[in-house]
Every structure is written in structure tokens, then in C-alpha cells.
Amino acid sequence: MDRYSAIRLIREGLNGHKGWGRIWRGATPKASYDVVVIGGGGHGLATAYYLAKIHGITNVCVIEKGWIGGGNSGRNTTIIRSNYLFDASAAIYNHALELWKGLGRELNFNIMMSHRGVLNLAHDEHEARGLKRRVEANRLNGVDAEWLDAKQVKEFCPVINISHDIRYPVLGATLQRSGGVNRHDAVVWGYARAASALGVDIVEQCEVTDIRTEAGAVTGVETTKGFIRTPKVASVTAGHTSVMAKMVGVKLPIESHPLQALVSEPIKPLVPCVIMSNAVHVYCSQSDKGELVIGAGIDAYNSYTQRGSMDIIEHQMSSLCELLPVVSRLRMMRQWGGIVDTCPDASPIITKTKVKGFYINGGWGTGGWKATPGSGHAFADLVARDEPNAIAAPFTVDRFYSGDLVAEHGAAAVAH
Amino acid sequence: MTSQPFRLPQGGLVDRSRLVTFRFDGREYTGHPGDTLASALIAGGTHMVARSFKYHRPRGILGAGVEDPAALVEIGSGIHRDPNVRVTEAEIHDGLEAHAQNVWPSLTFDVGEANDLLWRFFPAGFYYKTFMGGPRGWMTWEPFIRRAAGMGRAPDGPDPDPYEQTNRHCDVLVVGAGPAGLMAALSAARSGARVILAEETAALGGRLLSRDPAATHLDDRAAPEWIGAVAAELRSREDVTVLTRTSAFGYYGENFLGLWERVGDHLPRHERSPNLPRQRLWRVRAKQVVLATGAIERPLVFHENDRPGIMLASAAVTYVHRYGVLPGRNVLVFANNDSGWGAAFDLAESGASIAAIVDVRREIDGALLSRAAALGIAIHAGCGVVGTSGRFRVTGAKVQPVEGAGGVSDIACDLVAVAGGWTPNTALFAQSRGKLRWDDDLAAYRPGLSWQKEASAGASNGVFDLSGCLAAGAEAGARAADAAGFSAVPAPVPALRAEETLQRSIHFVAEVPSHRKPEDTRAWVDLQDDVTTKDLKLALQEGMQSIEHAKRYTTTGMGTDQGKVANLNAFRLVSDKLGRPMHEIGTTTSRQPWKPVTFGALAGQHVGHHFHPRRGTPMHDWHRRHSAVFEPVGDWLRPRAFLKAGESFEQAVQREARAAREGVAVLDATTLGKIDIQGKGAREFLNRVYTSAWTKLAPGRCRYGFMLGEDGMVLDDGVTSCIADDHFHMTTTTGGAARIYQWLEDYAQTEWPDLELYLTSVTEQWAVASLSGRDSRAVVEEICDDFDADPATFPFMSFRDTTIEGVPARIFRISFTGALSYEINVPASYGLWLWEKIFEAGARFGITPYGTETMHLLRAEKGFVIVGQDTDGTVTPHDLRMDWIVSDTKGDFIGKRSLSRSDTARADRKQLVGLLTEDPGLMLEEGAHVIATENEPAPPVPMLGHVTSSYLSPNIGRSIALALVAGGGDRMGDRLWVTRPGGAPIPVRVTETDFLKLKEEGHV
Amino acid sequence: MSDARRRSPLHGRSEISSGEAATVREHAFLGKLVLRGAPGDIAPALRELTGTAGPEDACRSASSNGRSVLWIGPDEHWLVVPAETEIELARDLDSRLAGVRHHVVDVTDYHVAIGLSGTKAWEVLAKLTPFDVHPKAFAVGAVAGTVIGRGQGVLWRPAEGSALDSDYIVFIRSSMADYLWCLLAEAGRQFGMTPETPIGGETWRLAR
Amino acid sequence: MFVITCPYCGERDQAEFVSGGQAHRTRPLNAHEMSDADWGDWVFMRDNPKGIFAERWFHSAGCRRWFNALRNTATDQFLAFYPMGEAPPAVEAVLPATPAGEAPIGSGNDAVKVMRPGESEGTTT
Ligand SMILES: Cc1cc2nc3c(=O)[nH]c(=O)nc-3n(C[C@H](O)[C@H](O)[C@H](O)COP(=O)(O)OP(=O)(O)OC[C@H]3O[C@@H](n4cnc5c(N)ncnc54)[C@H](O)[C@@H]3O)c2cc1C
Ligand SMILES: NC(=O)c1ccc[n+]([C@@H]2O[C@H](COP(=O)([O-])OP(=O)(O)OC[C@H]3O[C@@H](n4cnc5c(N)ncnc54)[C@H](O)[C@@H]3O)[C@@H](O)[C@H]2O)c1
Ligand SMILES: Cc1cc2nc3c(=O)[nH]c(=O)nc-3n(C[C@H](O)[C@H](O)[C@H](O)COP(=O)(O)O)c2cc1C
Ligand SMILES: [Zn+2]
């Protein structure tokens, strides 16, 4: 793997940049692998990377039906935080947050991890109560979190309207200072590069069309580039998780919904942190390039079209103008949609299945980006050892049968 | 008066009789009504207006409309500042102030230009390879990068301008009012169809306006006259809406399109009507859509092709004919197809001298050659421009044969007009999810397979000749009207007298070949974001071979113009480099919006007062007059407490709470959800939706119940009363009302239609005053006509119908406070009257209004739960230790089966208990957590549960709290601790939840 | 003459008008009943008590002598009748329909009726609803439940027999009447109406 | 923004409706006899096909009736609307060639934006 650095950049600059090699190797699939990871999003590539790096399983292939990072990884608003209510969630998201901190250097790829702070606003007493409960749970779980009153919110993020005269005045907010945003494409490419360097094959434009089993165990995957033999298939296909599960007759509580986001035209720094509001239903941050990156809730119907309804955007915009009244003269430059895999309890599924060798990591819904390293790390462990570790254990599909849900819904209804 | 040295003596559609004065970057300019900022600046001799994003290279005016990639400025200042405005679109008006943006200290001396000197070190994606070191990693560098990035500045304060949305349905929506669009609108309109014609610019006519009117006659009328006649006919028709300054920005599902109209932006502020919005969003549902959005000319990609003064040939011609300005006196035309030659002739005839025509093709049509010769124009066929000179304005070009050897000629010029071929504007078609087809002859994509009910006509469909466009428009308009159910004939195509030199025999080169070393070549593909061919090649070299990766790695097409002129050149370059055909490379996704749309317009009038409804009860105004402080509950505003002069909120709550037990206090309970349920299966229905049994509830009696989700978790609660055997009156929580009503309809209609019941929401039919306290009976008896509230005949959990001064009223003896209570319901229109009457009657008892905070406190004293506060979607009735509410004897009810799942039935689940602090004056924080140890261990701290409700109770005389605590039911009397940030955990005792009873029994 | 003790949520608001273009006013205290039941079952009673058996088609109304029957759903009609006649009518219906599966509920105070008239009335309304309110598409006599602003309501074009002289009637739940009133005034601004401020919208009093 | 044809009110804007998820899920009558697994299946597990999906809609702002629809989730095209209690009609849809792939037209996603040579032009319905 080429080592990236400022010095190398200068050297290449003088040499017409002829020396840069491929960031990840192009690969054609081999006949068999120890593990086939389906889905070349952040989670899939992280899984492959940790399989190779931590478990020494390098005979791994990541199969991506389009281009890597083209799924939700390429569509998300990159909000990263770990201030979840329940212990199980706090554990996995905080694990991820710790990994994010050193990830750029570990991968030797600048993922632009910006710990600029995440505000979750409270607009009524009920929300304030819920958020305070969460802050305190976070503190006890060792997750960085604090409560700000309206004045402190204004100091931290001056563009927010904290006037009392508005429909949903800001009563306060939680702040997770270590939360923030990063550059989504860079994470995907960084993991791909590191995994590829460790020997992982990344095959793009190749769709898994079926999963072959014999006697209740996986034997390989059928793809648009032919059959690939493998004893272990790890599905990390986000919006398409149900499609994968159906191939082997595994039932899931997942529904795929459109989730939209949009960016404004680039402007000079205006929004210093991440702002999330549940009651008015919008969230916003500003990218390093200058666009405001804005999201809201899902469209309520199932869809695989990566498109949603204009209503959602309109509501989202009136919410944003209400919250940040300076923005109404700014302009929406581009909007898009992803396909999010939502679970009834708003928590993910990391699980073995009734089919031996078939593992599922999905159901991250509107908020899985922040978990990418933690999810990949835990899932690699499950795939390698065939047993969930302590972090992954609460997230098996069994919880829907026993009733032990990780019901983050109430606590964090806002998307992502 | 500043002169307009480049204004032509005549021509153009501007109003020369009036002079408009404006400023750009501190300098005063003049122009005429009808000018854009671009045309007026060009008239004043200014081409350089901006700097590029990354290298801060000088940027001039490339286009004449929406396609321009980089001529962006700030308009206005302070709270009215609009960043990133395209000079080619902004119309000038008196007093307009524009500024260069993203420059420091000035447009001409910009420190950021240093980046350009270091360009070799800033290739595509350089930032991924560095900025990882430093004490805070990327955070060390980010502030600098952020400050350098971004373009214009946001306004300084809240936007004072109004926006609005409106909705329209039409039979035919025509997008674009060029020749094709005009004919389409005309043909459809004549059939009687409801037609909307939306045109992005200020005038109808499209590219017709860019032609020499003297040389373009339709039905013997000069083009502007013909357009005027068509416009007049369209505008005279009642069912036609003609919108100018209106862009169709989004083609969504099922022929739903968003149009963005700029109503006031082109006027000075003082001339704008105060009754009109600044901008308007039209939400249009069309039966049929005709896309007549024209075609956009492409620039050519060559070394140093980014200097100010390098302009699309079609734009140069537009400046001459539409605006009457000459963009250059000495023009070098660089083409790869015939249409550039037409532009050259046109410019020559308009007074420019043509320094040369350079064409990458060796073979040129004879007629063109002879016409050029006749005009005395030097021709360089088979040649390309391989470099340019000039700092803020191009001063010359280097020309060299594209193949074989050949010297470089330096040709002086003040404008390079580039003609790289035409790209049909398929943005909306692609948004509609139609499929594009690569057309080799056209050297562009054009609409292929349609998905929605639309048709593209004219240049947007790859038809480039005027008569073809007129005919195609007429045909498309008529067909659309037909398909919408009318009977239409295409409007006759006007007889044409027009000179046309169209795009013919194009030789599409993604990058003009040159003899320069590739690493020294800087040929821009995307002028806004500074993406050069080298960047794209580097992306491919590094493996970014999908067009989507190449886009994201280089950011090509990701600027505010979304690559309108750049994209096809980028795709072609990738196709060439990878040696794969265009259709395999594909395109990036064309997403909404076609051009950036203000957030304000998208929000429309739904901001401020109109953002979200505030629901108020009939007594709302009374509450306001009596110093209520409010809280939102669902969409309602409810009084939290009524503050007396000089009183704090806490004091008010204590006072109200005392009154509600010891005297009489009254709560506005109108907001509770109310549902009228009738039908033969109504009772059975209640049995199935509530956990408790309803079989025996007699008419006149009421019962409190819980509803669960199928997952067994508490969903809502409320009291339901039996009015008759087959008739019930249900109440729900305020916040849950809408959801529960819908949920009940779902079961009633879809699971159990056999129960034959009807549900009607009556929430707002009734105003409800809830009286609480010892003296409440007296008040009730006093106001009612002949009513005896003797508990023997009017027991707890029953209701009576009565009248109050003849007004029908229903009185429920139910209580959420544990005190003697009556809920009086009257038709809502009598609500305020009732309320005032209660105060009249209660005056002698010192009746006190109370709010929701007091109500919460009162019910906590009694240990009653609030769904949503003491529950959070993970709590069963058993967790609340309310086993009595779950009937084991009746049959199935919603959620029943879930209660016996292994985890739901566990004994150590979190259960609702009371907590009493050892220090009675200390109040716990709601949301604080319960732990089992006196000292807080290091994280992760095992948490037993959390405090759900906490109050200082005047009636108990100390603080009280409710909490969900693991295995709480078995911990009665235990000592536990409640954490707090920055302090030692607070010791508490676990108790039952009914504090009033505890007090009565002397346990408190 | 209606009972002076009654108060509409729009009490204190007076008609807003921009001349010919559009006028907005309240039809206070119109009687409104929800009548559920199969159309065939209820028609005879309806005819007897209101003078019309109800509309034949979905999304239509039938009016006679100031009493109107509006189609709301396949087994739901609204009866809109002169102020303070609704209670008696409800009673009569109940007794006339005894034995027939039905349900009558008085929703007079639940819904507020706001009338719009004028040449531009439809354009004012079009700013608030995605439903096609153009007079050609939404003809006299038509009824539609739809989205209005950020809420829901029922639109109606009363016919002559209704004795209501507005071109359009919007039924909105009473707690949102004031919201809608102000939104209509805002929508009418283009035609010269003056904006109105929502009651309780001026200030928000927080407890802290 | 969909146009939804309420079986009772006709064509209306999506904004008037509430989506109710998967259709034809009948609430079991023998819940007490069901295993945790079967019960969990019913409460939580959902069909989530990429392709033809039978779903429920509620005409919340209109007639307040629930009804069913068939929609192609790969393209969002509605294929049929029918009242509660009726069986889904037979329909044809533009379906993806492979389970996770894109429909040849209508999804607007990756890879299907451009026609291949030889693919015939025209309109689809
Ligand atoms: C608009 C939007 C905003 C969001 N915002 C946030 C946020 O702010 N913070 C946050 O934490 N999360 C956010 N999320 C959620 C987050 O994006 C996802 O949870 C996360 O990216 C999922 O990553 P992944 O790698 O699992 O999925 P993906 O990136 O979707 O990767 C799955 C991959 O599987 C591939 N695939 C599918 N089927 C097959 C097959 N048959 N064969 C081969 N490959 C296949 C897909 O093409 C895809 O590339 C957001 C999501 C969206 C859509
Ligand atoms: N010389 C050549 O080779 C060549 C090539 C192409 C076109 N042309 C000429 O251009 C003309 C094409 O006629 P036409 O009618 O097809 O196109 P046009 O370019 O004349 O008109 C298109 C109109 O659509 C408007 N528009 C574009 N996108 C819009 C949107 N999203 N919303 C609202 N308005 C939008 C534009 O402002 C423009 O007025 C003909 O005169 C033709 O001869 C010439
Ligand atoms: C965080 C983030 C920032 C983005 N910034 C830009 C941007 O500056 N310009 C742009 O054109 N698109 C931007 N996009 C959107 C992408 O162009 C694209 O729409 C998105 O990746 C979805 O892909 P698709 O539209 O090709 O389906 C951004 C996307 C994300 C997730
Ligand atoms: Zn309906």
C-alpha cells in the first residue's frame, strides 16, 4: 500500500502524480473464498478489513452490486454520535466512536473526522426530560454528554433561534462534544484501500443473485459474475437486507424506506456543529466544502427507488427556516434518497441465522453510519468465531421473539 | 454616467429608453431594463467577475443563462444578501449592489490565488492523503480548510422576505418557452386544455431571442413580434397560465413537478408589491408534460480554457442579439462543428472582427468556407487552441494543428468563442426516470425511453433546426392535449425565413489534443470546482473508474451548476480513457433541483405563525388573559400553570396543587381525545383493545383502561364510559388522540368488520372543565340545573347527563388527582361560558385555575402514571405493577400474547415504584438514574433504572418521585441511590407509588 | 338568533375581503351531524327529514331547503343544517332509523365552517391544498376531504339549496380554525387581504 | 408524490393518505396457542420485497377508509387499488431481472439510466 503523506504528495506533485497506484485493487472473483461479504458499503468493507486485520482471515471477497460506497454509505449525512440511551446501544456506538478517533491514521487515509459536537435540541418539557435521562445514562456509561440550557446552546451555535416567540422554542439541548461528522466517501475508500492491501478482493458491478445452501449450511453465492464457493456469507446490504434474507428463507422485521437528504450551495462557515431536532424534525451540519447537509425523517412507505416525496423536503425546509432563520435565502443544490433498513425497535440486527454460515448485519436504518467501524469490528468477530461477542450479543434477531428489544425508538426518534 | 463601451448602437431587446444604475464590486455601472448583470457588465467592459473554488483563478462569463458554471457573485447585503448568484441570470435594477465573493482582499488581488501557484500539489483528492497529522488530527487543519472553502456568505440575519407555495392541476404543463415550447403551449391551449407554460428567464422566446431578428422571420414577422403574438394569444386564454422567471426545478413521481417563480427579485425593493411574496413555489400535478427545455452548448476542453473572455459561441451571439452588447471586438472562434461557424458569421455581421475560426475538423463544409472567405475570416481547420494568454481577460490564443507536426500560431483576440456542440437539456427527463439514449450523430444523450407521461420536444429532444423545433413543439403539444382527453390539432407551423448554421458533422473531442506534456497541461472540465482533465485522469489511474467514483473523487459536476456544461465532457473523457463506449460509462444521476431553489420557497408560507398549527381550546384566550404559561402537548397549547403577580412558576404550582385538594381548582381538560363508539360489537371491541374487561360495565358507568401495542407495551390510557349497551364514549391522552383514533379504525375496519361499529372523533365537540378538590361538589351543584351530586346516587366512576342553564352537559365523576373530582363536558361553543360560570360559582371558595404541571404533580401524589412519561414504549402494565388492569378471564386482547414472552414475563424487569429521598426537601432530577451503591463506581455504571417523575409535593409535604427500577416490586423499603452529575448519589427509599395513601397510613 | 352564550373559535374575527377577488367569512354555528350507515338503509329517513335522499355519487352533496347531505365516505354522510336545528334532527334521525344499523353524532362544534367567495377564491384555496379546487374540476355540489395547510379538512361547494352563499366552504376542526383563518388571510394577501395574527401566536410564555 | 386512487374517493394526492405497511396479514385468532416464535413472526416479521408489494393505505384526510394497493417497490409504480377483504388482482410490473437488481426502467437508480444499443425506444406503461 502506498503510504500517503504531505511529503509524498509534494514528491508526486513534482512528478506529475504518475506514481499513485490504485486505491484498491480491481479484482475478478476467484472460485472460492473463506468468507464472502455481500455489500461494499462502509459496514461491509469494515467487516472485511477487520476480518483480515484482526482475525487474519484474508481470503475474503467483498461483492458489491454497483460501485462501492454507492448505497447508504454514499448518501448519508454522516452524523456521528454515541449518546444512545440503552447500555447495549451505548456500548456499540461508543465502541465505534472510539475507533473513529484514530481511524484516519490507522487507515492512512484522511477521513476528515471532525469531532465538532452534536446538539440534540429539546423543544418541550417532555423532550427535555427524555434528553436529560439520556445525558445521565450516557455519563454513567462513560459516554461524553452534557446538558446545555438555551443560552448555552446559543453560545455554542449562534445561528440557532432561541427566541421564545416561536412555535417550538429551544429549551435546551444535549451536547456530545466528541460527536461530529466525517467524509463518507473517504471512509469507504479508506477501508477499501486498507482491506485490499491486506489481500481482500473487492469485486464491483457484481450482484449476488442467490445463496446456495446444502443441508442447512451455506456453500456459496450465485452472482452475476458466476458462482463463488464459500462456507461463510456475511450480508451487509443495508436497504437490501430483506432481499438477501429471503434467498435463504430467513425472516426479518426489516422494512426498506426512502430516506432523503439534501445539500445547500456551498457557503462560508455558518453552522459550527451538528444540530438535530426531533420536534421540528430536521437535522443539519455543514460540510468542509461549505454545503449545509440536511436531513429529516423517512417516507412512511416501503421503497427501493432511492427517491422520496417532495412533501418531506418541504416540511424539512420549513423546520430548518424556523430553527435557523438566516437560511431561507440559501438554496437547495441537490437532493437525493437512500434506502434505509428500519427495524421496529430502531436498533440493528447483528446475527447468526438458522442457516449455518449465513450472517446478517443490517437494520441500521437511518443511523448506521456512525457505527461503521464498531459494526464492522463486531461483525467480523461474529463471522470469524461464529459467536457474538458481548457488544454484538444484544442485537441478535432473537430479541424479537423473547421481547428483549433494544428500544431506542422512544429515546431517539429522530432519524440519524 | 458610466459609459457602456460595448453596448452596440442598436439591437437587443433591452429598453434603451431607460437607464439603470447598479454597482458591482464597488464600481458603478449602467445598463438598461432587460439586461442581466452579465450583459450589463459586459457592456461596461467587465468580464472577470469571480474566482474559482480551489485555485482562485479568475473567472469570467462563459454562458448567457443558467448554464454558466462559475460567474457567481453576492447580491445585496446584510439580511438581504444572496450568495452564489449567477450574473448571467440576475436581472439588473436600479440600486442593485453586487459583490465578488470568496476573494480576499479583493477580486483582482486575491491572496487565495497562491493556491494556483501550488496547483501541482493540489490534485483531485489531495486532502485524502494529508492533514492527518497534528495534535488533533484533521481537526488541526479543518478550520483553515473550512474558511477557505465555501463560496458566498449567508445573510447576516433572519430573512425578512415572504415566500409562498401554491398548487395547480393542469392538463398540459409545458416547460420552456422557446419555439418548441411556444408551439406546444399554443397547440394544447387551442384544444381547451388547462395549460401551464413555465419559462425560466424573464422573456418568452428561448433561443429565438438569440437570433438576429432581421434575419429571422416567422410568418413574415420578425421573431420578437411573432413571439409577442403567440404570447398574447396564450395570455388571452382563460385556461392558460404563462409563467416567466419560473424554473421547473423538480420532476417528481406521477407527473408532479415543482416550479420556482421569482416574483420580486428583479425589482428594486421599493418597487416590490408588499402583497406579493418574494418567490413562489408552484406544486403542479400535470396530466401530461411537454419538456421543451432546449439544448445547452458545450465548451471545448483545452489548456488554459478557463480565462475570462472565453465564452460559449451561442452565449456570445445571445449577448449581441438579446442584449445588444458586444462581448468582444476581436473574436477567435473555436469549434468542433458547424454551429460555431454560424456564430462567427453572426458576430462578424454584428460588428466584431473575427480573428480566426479554429476548427478541430480538417474537413469543413464548402459553403461555410466560402462564406468565411467572403467575410475575410482566417481559417485554421484541423487545428486546436492549445493555450491562451491574458490575466483578467483573454488576450490571445495559441493555435496548433491537432495532428502531426505543425507550429504554434499566436493569435491576438479579446474573446474566444467556443462551440463544442450542443447537449440536449435532458435534466428533467432524467429526473422523471426516463432513460437516455446515446446518439452518436448528435454526440450527446437524448431522451430514449419515457417512464412518466411526458414528451420532449425541440432541441431538448435533439432536434436542432428551427422549423423542426416549431413542428415538434406543435406536435407534442397537440399529442399531450389529446392524451389528456382533448381533441387537438398541432398549431400550423409558421412559414420560416431564417438563416441557420446548425450543429453538423461534429467531432467530439473530450480534450483538444496538444503537444504539451500532459503533466503541464491544465484543461478545465468543471470551471466552478476547478476540475481539470488531469484530475479525472488521476481518478481513473487511482481506480475511480466508475463515473460515480470519478465524480465524487474529483467533485466534477458537484458545484452549484451541477455540471450543466461540464458533465458530458467529463463522461466523454472517461469513455475515451477507459476505451469503453459512452453507454457503458453511463451518466451521473440527474437529481432535483434543476437549479438551486431557495429554502424559503420550499418552505413557502409555512413558517413563523403558519409553521405548524397551534391548537387552542375554547378557553384558550381566557388562559392567556390569566397569565398562563403554556406547554405544547401534541399540537395543542396547554396551560402549565397560572402565575399570579410576583409568583414564580414553582410557587404557582404549589399553590394550585394545594387548592386542588383542599379547596377547589379547575383544569381545562378539553384536549383529551374523545371518540364516540357505537355498534353492536362495541363492547366486544373494547374488550379487545383494552387490557381490562368491559363485559359488565353498565350504562352510566366509567372505567379506566390501558391499551397495549401488539408487542405488549403500554400504548395509551384513558377512561371509557358506557352510554348505552352499544354506545361508548372513549377518552385518550391528548398527545395520543390522533394516533389512537387511527389505530382503532384500523382494527375496526380491517380485522373485525364483523363487530359492525362506527367510530367518530368528538374531541373538539366537547369542552371539558375538570374540577378537583373538597369544594368541587358544591360548585358543581351550584351551576347545574337541579343536580344532586350525592355520592350515593352519583358514585365514583359514573356519569350523568344534565343541563346547565338549559345547556346540555355531561358530568363524569372521575379523577386523575385522587381528590374529589368532576369533569364537566358541554358543547365546545359553550366552553368559555361554562368556564366563566364555574369561576363565578367558585369565587366564594377561592376557585383556582390549574395547569398541566400541577395536574402531573397531583396524579403523582396518588401514584397514577402518565403514559409517555412514566412509560417509554418498553413498559408493560405488569412493569407498572398494575396487574389488576389486565384481565386474565376475558379472551384475547391486543398485546396479550406478548406479555408472556420469556423476556416480557421476567421478574427482574424494571418496575414502577415510589422513591422517597432521605432528605425530604431534596428533589430528584427527572431522568436521573438509580444505582445500588452508595458511591458511583467508574463507568460503565450498572443502572437499575431511572426517575420518571419527580415533584415537591405540598400535600405530602415533601419531595416525591416515581421511578422504573429493576425488580422494583421486590425492593420495597430498600435503600438505593440516585445519581447526579458532579455530586454524590442521593440516598432514597423504595416505596409504593400511592403517596397519599402512604401519608394517610403514616408511612411518610 | 343564536344563543349569545355560544362562542365560535373565530369569535372576534370579522369578515376579510379584498373586494371581488375573495372574501373569507365564517358561517357560525351551522348544524353538523355525522350520519353513518349504508346509503340504501338511510336514504328514506334522509328524504323524509331533510328533503333529499343524499347525493347519488361519491364526493357530492345534495341540498334542499337549507339542509344539505354531504358524501364523506362510503357509509358516512354529513348533514349540514341551519343553526340550532341539529339536535332535533339528530333525535329524529335516531328514532326514524331505530332498528337500522346507523350512528348519528353531533359534530356542530367540532367543525368550523369558513366560507370563501369571489373570483379568486379558488386561487386562495389552491395555496393551501393539493386538491384540485379549480371551479372546472371541483364543481358546485362537490365535496372532498383533503389536506389544508398543515391540517385536514373538508371542502365543499354548496349548491343553491344549501342556502349558503359562499362559493366554497372549508370545514376545519375548531381548534385549528384560527390557524386556518390566518393562513387564508395570508393566501389572500396577493389579492389585497390584510394579514391576521393567530390568537395566542404573539408570544410564547415559558415557565423559565 | 404519488397519486393514490382511493377506491371510494378516486385519485388523490399522497398527502391525504397514511401508509399502513404490508397487507393481508390476518391477526391470529389462536394467539394463546402460538409459540413465542410464531407470535414473534406475526408481530414483527415483514415481507419487504423488491417488486410487487401488497400494502395498505388509509385515506386519512378523506373518507377515512383503509384499503389495499399493489405497488412495485422497485419503481414505486402503483399497479392496483382494491378494498379491504378482497384478494389482490393479478398484475404485471416492470420488475428487476435479478432479485436485488434494478428494474429496466422506472427506478431511476444506477445502471439503468442509459439505454443499451438496440434497446427499443418509446414509452412504457
Ligand atoms: C439520507 C440518509 C442519511 C443518513 N444519515 C445518517 C447519519 O447522519 N448518521 C448515521 O449514523 N447514519 C445515517 N444514515 C444511515 C447510514 O447511511 C447507513 O446506516 C449506513 O451507511 C449503512 O452502511 P452499510 O455499509 O451497511 O450500507 P450501504 O452503504 O448501503 O451498503 C450496502 C451495499 O450492499 C450492496 N448490495 C445490496 N444488494 C446486493 C447484492 N445482492 N449483491 C451485492 N451487493 C449488494 C449495495 O449496493 C450497497 O452498496 C443515513 C442514511 C441515509 C439514506
Ligand atoms: N445551432 C445549432 O446547432 C442549434 C442547436 C440547438 C438548438 N438550436 C436552436 O435553439 C432553438 C431550440 O428551440 P427549443 O424551443 O427547443 O429550445 P430553446 O432553447 O429555444 O428554449 C428552451 C427554453 O426553455 C427554458 N428552460 C430550460 N429549462 C427550463 C426549466 N427547467 N424550467 C423553465 N424553463 C426552462 C429556457 O430558458 C429556454 O427559454 C431553436 O431555435 C434551434 O434552432 C440551434
Ligand atoms: C455528505 C454529503 C455531501 C454531499 N455534497 C454534495 C455536493 O457538494 N455537491 C453535489 O452535487 N452533491 C453532493 N452530495 C450528493 C451526491 O452528489 C449524491 O447525490 C449522493 O451521493 C447520492 O447519489 P445519487 O444522487 O447519484 O443517487 C453529497 C452527498 C453527501 C452524502
Ligand atoms: Zn377515500
TrEMBL record, chain A:
Q: Return the EC number.
A: 1.5.3.24
Keywords (alphabetical) are:
Cytoplasm, FAD, Flavoprotein, FMN, Nucleotide-binding, Oxidoreductase
Catalysed reaction equations from the record? sarcosine + O2 + H2O = formaldehyde + glycine + H2O2; sarcosine + (6S)-5,6,7,8-tetrahydrofolate + O2 = (6R)-5,10-methylene-5,6,7,8-tetrahydrofolate + glycine + H2O2
Q: Which domain of life is it from?
A: Bacteria
Q: Which residues form the Rhodanese domain?
A: 35-79
Give the GO biological process terms.
Answer: tetrahydrofolate metabolic process
Q: Which cofactor does it need?
A: FMN; FAD
GO cellular component annotations, sorted alphabetically? cytoplasm
Q: Enumerate the GO terms in the molecular function aspect.
A: nucleotide binding; sarcosine oxidase activity
Asked if the keyword Transport belongs to this entry, the reply reads: no
> Span of the secretion signal?
none
User: What are the subcellular locations of this protein?
Assistant: Cytoplasm
Q: Does the keyword NADP apply?
A: no
InterPro entries (UniProt xref): FAD-dep_OxRdtase, FAD/NAD-bd_sf, Rhodanese-like_dom, SoxB
Q: Which family does it belong to?
A: Belongs to the SoxB family.
Identification of the protein by name: Sarcosine oxidase subunit beta
Lineage in the entry? Bacteria, Pseudomonadati, Pseudomonadota, Alphaproteobacteria, Hyphomicrobiales
Automatic annotation (TrEMBL), chain B:
Decide whether keyword Cell division is in the record.
no
Q: What EC number(s) does the entry state?
A: 1.5.3.1
In terms of SUPFAM superfamilies, this protein maps to: Aminomethyltransferase beta-barrel domain, FAD/NAD(P)-binding domain, Folate-binding domain
Q: Which InterPro entries match?
A: 2Fe-2S-bd_N, BFD-like_2Fe2S-bd_dom_sf, FAD/NAD-bd_sf, FAD/NAD-binding_dom, GcvT/YgfZ/DmdA, GcvT/YgfZ_C, GcvT_C, GCVT_N
Ranges that cross the membrane: none
Keyword terms, alphabetized = Oxidoreductase
FAD/NAD(P)-binding domain segment(s): 171-434
The GCVT N-terminal domain is annotated at 619-888
Q: Record's Pfam families?
A: Fer2_4, GCV_T, GCV_T_C, Pyr_redox_2, SO_alpha_A3
* Limits of the Aminomethyltransferase C-terminal domain: 910-996
Source superkingdom: Bacteria
What biological-process GO terms show up in the record?
A: tetrahydrofolate metabolic process
Q: Determine if Oxidoreductase is one of this entry's keywords.
A: yes
Q: Which residues form the SoxA A3 domain?
A: 521-604
GO MF assignments? sarcosine oxidase activity
Family in the record = Belongs to the GcvT family.
Under the heading PANTHER family, the entry gives: AMINOMETHYLTRANSFERASE (PTHR43757), AMINOMETHYLTRANSFERASE, MITOCHONDRIAL (PTHR43757:SF2)
Q: What is this protein called?
A: Sarcosine oxidase alpha subunit
Automatic annotation (TrEMBL), chain C:
Asked if Hydrolase is a keyword of the record, the answer is no
Q: What class of enzyme is it?
A: oxidoreductase
Give the record's keywords alphabetically: Oxidoreductase
**SUPFAM superfamilies xrefs:** Folate-binding domain
Q: Name one GO molecular function term.
A: sarcosine oxidase activity
- Any idea of its EC number? 1.5.3.1
Domain of life, source organism: Bacteria
Record has Cell cycle as a keyword: no
Pfam families, A to Z: SoxG
How is this protein named in the record?
A: Sarcosine oxidase gamma subunit
From TrEMBL, chain D:
What GO molecular functions are on record for this protein?
A: sarcosine oxidase activity
Q: Which domain of life is it from?
A: Bacteria
Q: Which GO terms describe its biological process?
A: tetrahydrofolate metabolic process
The answer to whether UniProt assigns keyword Oxidoreductase to this entry is yes
Main enzyme class: oxidoreductase
Catalytic activity, EC:
1.5.3.1
UniProt-recorded name of the protein: Sarcosine oxidase delta subunit
Lineage per the UniProt record: Bacteria, Pseudomonadati, Pseudomonadota, Alphaproteobacteria, Hyphomicrobiales
